[in-house]
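User: Structure tokens for this complex, please. No commentary.
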Amino acid sequence: MLTKIEALRAQLNELLEKAESSAELDKAKVEFLGKKGAITELMTSLKELKDPMEKKNAGQQINLLKKEVEERLAARADELVKLEEQRQIEAGPRYDFTVPAKSGQGSLHPITIVQNELEEIFASMGFTIEDYDEIVDEYHNFEALNIPGHHPARDMQDTYYLSNGQLLKTHTSAAQNAIMRKYGAPLRAIFPGRCFRNEATDACHENTFFQMEGIMIDEDISISNLIYFMKTMLSEVFERDINVRLRPGFFPFVEPGFELDISCLICGGEGCPTCKNSGWLELCPCGMIHPNVLTAGGIDPEKYTGFAFGLGLTRLAMMKNGIKDIRVLNSGNLKALSQFTSR
Amino acid sequence: MFISMNWIQDYVDLSGFDIEGLIKRFTLATAEVEDIIVKGSDTNGVIVAQIASIEDHPNSKKLHLLKIDTGNGLVDCVCGAPNVRVGMKVAFATDGGSVCGNKIVTATVGGYTSQGMCCSEAELGISADKAGLMEITDDIPLGTDFKKAYAVDDIIFEVDNKSLTNRPDLWGHYGIAREFAALTGRELKPVPQYDAAKIANLPAVDVEIIDKELAYCYTSVIAENITRKVSPVNMRIRLFYCGLRAINLLADLTNYVMLDLGQPTHAFDYAKVKKIEVKRFETPFEFETLDGVTRKIDENTLMICSNGEPVAVAGIMGGLASEIEDDTTSVLLESANFDGVSVRKSSTRLGLRTDASMRYEKMLDPELTIVAAGRYLDLLTTIDPGTKIISRVTDVRVKGFPEVKLEFNKAFVDRYTGIEISDERIVDTLVALGFKVEYEAGNFKVEVPSWRRTKDVTIKADIIEEITRVYGYDNFEITTTASPLRTVRSTTSRKDTIAIKNLLADKYGWHEVHSYIWCDARKFADIGVEIENNVKLVNSLSTDLTVLRNSMVPTLLTMAVENKQYDEKFGIFEIARVVDGVDANNVCVERKKLGIVLFDRVSGEEDAFFTVKNALDSIADITKNVAFKYERTEPAHAWQHPINLAEISLGDKKLGYFGVVHPSVKKNIDKKAAVIFAEIDMDILASIGKKDMEFDEPSKFPSIRYDLSLLADKKVLFGEFAKIIESENCENLADYTFIGSYTDDTMGDSKSVTIRFNFSSRERTLSGEEVQKAVDALIARFAAEGYSLKA
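Assistant:
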């Protein structure tokens, strides 16, 4: 009996070594463990043994063998599955991830990207974001901003006048009056928008461009607040610590009015060709809102003060993206514009 | 404008200060300095010497061999100047020296040794005159350092004229000197004046201001017996450094006084101009100005006349006929003030902007005319002591600017500045700038000086600027506001805009563009789109760009054509303004619109059409949480397809349309491509609220799917079936969708439309019988409407 068992074990070893498919394993399983299988037969023949000790011993040996067969068949089956998977993987497709694929990602206009970014910063500082008409009357574009009829800014050559007597707004400040009237004081608002100047276009000049105006009005808003605010806001815009300085500048709708310079973005203030060695870049006009403008907006200048600033969105978009020719922006040229996929 | 620091220091002692540092402070306190130019530092070793002898050069007609007496022996010099003369005193650049940066060394010129160079004024950098050697007057001893003899060393800075627009007082050195005095705390010296009392009893000049509207005042005086023709060297150097050309003494003096005080003056030859009238002419005429150009003068241009004959364009330029000439010995001086706006407009009309008109435009102080006349006489009589003044300083004045007195307190200043500036400092600053200040216990009463009240300083807030700019914005402590932060919500319009732009770029891969608000006639013509009547620009620089657009689509179509090189398939979009004519009050009806154009040479037109529709559905989804309604509509524009055109609406609001471009336009864009457009009114969209989210708990029970194919005429739209299904109010019908439609040659005018129905219940699993009953009911209803099942 024990000899038979050893013979069966040897047979199993041979079978397992040869088995290359799960079908062969299934066949082996039947041969060993099936109803007419070798082990079942052994079990049946057990009753032929007379010696109880021998019978018990042989029974144990057969059970051990049975267990061994089951385990080894299962292990081999697992192995074969893995081998098969491996074969399939090897035989399967190999993708070339270095092949450039078209993402099909669309683009936002660089002005939109900068505008969204700025709006987010201002919204976080409690500013209302306002949209305003592009076609306005002389009152909103000029008179309400303390720009009298004889002012050079009102000469025909700078402003696009329309056949119905209205005009295309020349600056976002044209919205100041309406926004003051809409909200009253206190007020924090920005109003980005498209502006128009009647001039010939070249690499640096466009007749259609974007600005973003901001105003902050409350009791006791001071020049000190203005400087603080501009420094904080511009540091956020340029994502670095920005130094600002004010110089006197004349704009009819502010008093005092300033030109705001920022420390040069290229050299950081050391002096370089970009800043003409001055260390400063002229960035935006700003100032304390003129009392006449507050009055026109229905706000009492004896009670409230405020500041206003005008950022050139177009210029910012050009600075941030290294766009040299302003005409790219309104060209609709997708070879240029489709590059602006990141936000 | 160029400013000479030597000139400034005539009026304020700046010794001990770093001059370039002060100029930088001037930028921060007053006006932008564009450039600082150091003059004379690169000229060294130039002395006053004398030509002792002259020999012709044997091999050259132009060159001469000179012996130069340096005062310390003779040296050789080969010189090509035409005006050499024995005994002439010259500026001689010695060996080892330099002239305007050019090194001077002993060299061989034309075979002869030259130990230095005799210089022209141009070579010395003190004028543009290079015709011959500079001739130095006899009174200067030999060997004197040229830079000691004349004011060659100077620091010049250039102020950006634009930054002086609102400061009429800064258009001359005296006004700038006042700024330096205020910035440094040094005293400002008075302007030297001819003692008017000495001539007070002389007869007046015959002056009449006929046009009292456009002139403020006319100050004049007459002098004769003037023999000196050439201005002193130092005066000519200053004029040159400040950008003007020396002409003759009388003309140079007018320029000098203008640069000195900012007040333009004009010198008429008294032999030609004896009396003055200031007036406009009723009819246009031609007039030849000093620059030799004959100009047309219209009835709006103020003129200076003499006995009815025009002699100058007021505030702009004198006439050629009355100019100072070589034989002029007497002068009638004009120091006047004209209306700034009128001068600017006349100057624009004439296309003639002069140093004088630039200043008058700024609204000069009328009080300045008398000071300028006094200064002119002072200079003239000092330079040419033989001058005889034959009239008194005659001042005819028809109007002036009102006095401006302002009252404010310290709290007002504090509120504006947000920092502490002491009362004393406020008073000192204002006084230094020429304001009269009465101060008592925190209250200030201020009288604005005449030179600041013409337009610049008229209200209290203007005073703040004076105080703070001199204090220095760099010295401000910066603080945040006490103003409380309030939350703000984004408007629907802004949310919609951002959501739509991101959707179209991110999901559909389209590109946002920017375009112009007007139609481009040339580009429209290229694609066969006719410009529709609308509001126009009246002063466009181009006749092609005048009519405002009434739709985004044609502009985007022109851009699509321009991008055919970019790709076979692309979408572009823009949210911008169009104008829909004018309303009853003649005000433009401005609308903010989303425009979309899809250009597609790859997929078929139907695919492209449904891509755009899909995008519109997405827009409805993300912005309003509802579905748009689409209905076929008649074209409103010739570029729209007559059949494949749908109106987009939501509830009772019409939002826009989408469809296929008319074949007559499309063929000009691209013969093969599908070109689909859409336009949505963003203002109307923003007026519609977003439907609240109504969460629909999915049924836990299985659903049963049932497809029906129905026969219909080709023209029947799916919407017909949808209406029928909706009206059935089928109890357990969860949803239904359009699967597809099919037609072939055998079907004639019919098509088969397949619809998928999903039945399910929230309470239980539906039985096959129940569903079949519902389907049968639907089939019966379809049959009743004339749509039979496809066999």
